[in-house]
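Notes, p. 3: input format for complexes.
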Amino acid sequence: MSLQKILLKHEPKPENLLKVLKEIQKENKYIGKKECEKVAEYFSLPLARVFSFASFFDEVETRKGGKKIIKVCSGGPCLMEDSREVVRQIELHLRIEAGNDAHPKYKLEFISCRGLCDQGPVVMVDDQVFERVRPEDVDDIIRNYL
Ligand code: FES
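Output follows (146 residues plus FE2/S2 (inorganic) cluster):
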């Protein structure tokens, strides 16, 4: 779907801004300057405001070829199923640290409950959801999805 079609699906109200940015990202993989300009024009907002709004949200990627984002649920039920060990394995395999944004290709972060508590631990790589992830599954996920 073209950017224009996405914009026209929504009224240019502030409460629709994040929804529009996410839909554009789904089509385009990231929100660049060109996309921000079109969104700013449609919402009658300054470009800098749209760009800073987009940059604020971790789930909105403003850089082309952005990082792969690995998210691990830190809700109680997932912790009970040893999501901490899953995190440790991801950190070891990718040589990254959860919450640290320094790696050029990967980012590991904690997320709150996704409502899949009986399927935990829950891990997400971008929009792909993995359920009942065991520490020994981490190698496969990294090899096949990163
Ligand atoms: S606690 Fe992880 S999905 Fe609910």
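The longest helix spans residues 17-28.
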